[in-house]
Amino acid sequence: MFWHVPGLSAASPVDTILDKENFKLEDLLDEDEIIQECKALNTRLINFLRDKVQVELLLRYIVEETPDDAEKKRIFRFPFIACEIFICEVDVILKTLVEDEDLMNLLFSFLKPDHPHGTLLAGYFGKVVICLMMRKTLPLMNYVKSHPEIVSQLVDLIGITSIMEVLIRLIGADETMYSSYADSMQWLDDIQVLEMIVDKFSSSDSAEVHANAAEILCAVTRYAPPALATKISSPSFVGRLFHHAFEDSRPKSVLVHSLSVCISLLDPKRLVSASYQAFRSQLSHGTLVTASPETVNGMLDSLGDLLKLLDVSSAENILPTTYGSLQPPLGK
């Protein structure tokens, strides 16, 4: 049997560090139990971490690349722990961040074109921003709205998957985000965010960029706020999508991913500004969510060009085999 004697419980390693006179933030980040103590809302630890100076240091671990000759823990451990501290969702720490313009500027400085964008730190940046979206929605959205260049910077980096995920949630193309703020997202349409995304099919040759751009647009077809849902279904937007798909000398990934967006627009299961329960209700009453006639007509205008792609009977595609020549179109 073990007996608990009041007053003799062992102090946590974090408290031991906090008892020192000249400890630094790095001393805490190097302690294995710091995340556990954050989640347990250790009062002394939280009061230390909520200070603006400490929040700034934590942000710098996340947004600033380290020299190659730096210590391993500076490259890997400290940025990871700094990110974990933010996503512990301690309200006073997040409040210090979102209520300070300089700290928010530091966080989003990661997106600047002259800044290195390593995938490791991009992942940490994305986690922190998504945490702010979920816990400090209005302050974050007000900040982004007052700095519209952030949206274009995110679009420029959609080849990085973690940045793409931030953009999906920012524009409300996620069923868990902004259910109470859908009507206040008109400003995203005003800055033409969908046009920025679809134009990546033309301005980039990267297959990753094309795939991520298509994933964002497909998400918009399912969960977007009303203004963006109307825009992406319009004949003009569909025409713009096909224009990029049929451009000469473009990679095949442009056509493939453009068509995936069109398929998503025609999908009867798409949920435009509706919940899953509403969709189930429609099914139970024998109705389906169908594509608008305007969307279909916009696609039909490009059907002729699409059919031309099936004419692949040129001699360049002949494949000699042991039993004869194999030449498209196959199946005839």
Automatic annotation (TrEMBL):
Coiled coil feature spans: none
Pfam families for this protein: SAPS
SUPFAM superfamilies the UniProt entry points to: ARM repeat
Alphabetized InterPro entries for the sequence: ARM-type_fold, SAPS
Molecular function as annotated in GO: protein phosphatase binding; protein phosphatase regulator activity
Homology family: Belongs to the SAPS family.
Record's protein name: SIT4 phosphatase-associated family protein
